Model the fold of this input.
Amino acid sequence: MVWLTSTRRLLQAVTKSGTSQTSYTSKELKPKSSWTRRRAFLDSMRIYVRGGSGGQGFPRYGGLGGKGGDVYVTAVKKRTLKHVHSANPSKRFIAGNGDNSSKRKLVGDAGADCIIKVPVGVTVKNNIGRVIGDLNEEKQMLRVARGGLGGHPDNHFLGQKGQVEMVTLDLKLLADVGLVGFPNAGKSTFLSAVSRAAPKIASYPFTTIQPQIGVMEFTDHRQISVADLPGLIEGAHVNVGMGHRFLKHVERTKLLLFVVDINGFQLPKREHFRTAFETVMLLNKELELYKAELLDKPSVLAINKIDTVTDHALVTEIRERLHDLPDCLEDIDPALRPSQCVQFDDIIPISAQSGYSIEELKMRIRELLDYYADLDLQRTVTAGLQLVPHHRVESLPSLDALERNKARPV
Ligand SMILES: Nc1nc2c(ncn2[C@@H]2O[C@H](COP(=O)(O)OP(=O)(O)OP(=O)(O)O)[C@@H](O)[C@H]2O)c(=O)[nH]1
Ligand SMILES: [Mg+2]
Done:
């Protein structure tokens, strides 16, 4: 499966033909131009940080050198890594040196600290990939390089050099719900149906080329954020370097919303046709290959484009097969079989385009988020004594109930 980023050639190819029947090679799917790189969503950045040097002491009079400044990273709302880059394209962040001690000023002033403003959601890692800390809330701050001590009697009045590090700022989006699905499944259409976000929607695959967050609002002003991510396709786990590029963005979401097209999926010409059930299994497998813990997250399956079929037996069949997992896996191609199966909290047929069952899905997501938040709270309270097992909520509305709701305005 392959997560795909911007590719001008691919988009041109698709746009020229004006149809999703375009065939393209794997080379075409890789980013080529600097244009692409410039526009790409920046979610990781390596920077050089250096604390300031301590000032020299004044041995004859016992004067103390000023301490070198420290380098900090702090989380600021509405900031992006692109801002960090454009504010300092050299990506070198160096704090000020401490002042030397002098006859006129025996105690030298400390050097100025350097503060790097980064987006909320950044994890800071050192040169060997060890996590220094997470900045998950606004105004949180981390020191990434210490300034050198000023000269004083213990160091023979010699100011010390500041700490030098190469650190990585790794951004993972913070959203309540992460949309997971093949291209063209209708993820962006869903996002635009439930929020004010205006993602690009088109009938060719790979329309979304960078993550986007929208906010679902409820009448009581409750807000739930939803992250729309680029489509996932078969084979990502063998696509070195690119395959899981965007999957890290679902790591911090509280609930996964799988969106599948009831008609299945096929990449133009060269790939196999995959049924809706098979696409669920492929998504399951891809998540498992990336990080099996993702499968433990609360999850809902939205079977989209229900307006395009008259026979809803397909939905019942998918429900039954998912209910029978892993037993029913024997019938499917071994290449698609995950070893750990996702357990959906609910399976809801929707039409993101017409709005059918969208309100139900929104409410269900809210209910589940609240349910699991309560469970977490309970777990925290009982922590150390007895852990509350992870319960799944019984599947809710039947298809009949959803049918009855069809007439209800959304
Ligand atoms: N008939 C019908 N068409 C839909 C529905 N939802 C989405 N579509 C259409 O499906 C196509 C793809 O929709 P997108 O929302 O762009 O799909 P996506 O999952 O975001 O695709 P990528 O960004 O490529 O991953 C568009 O032409 C939509 O109009 C639906 O419920 N019914
Ligand atoms: Mg999209």
Observations:
- The first helix runs from residue 8 to 17.
- Helices lie at 8-17, 34-39, 81-87, 187-194, 276-290, 313-323, 358-381, 399-405.
- Confidence is low (pLDDT under 50) at residues 1-38, 405-410.
- Residues 187-188, 199, 207-208, 228 surround magnesium ion (ligand 2) (CB under 6 Å).
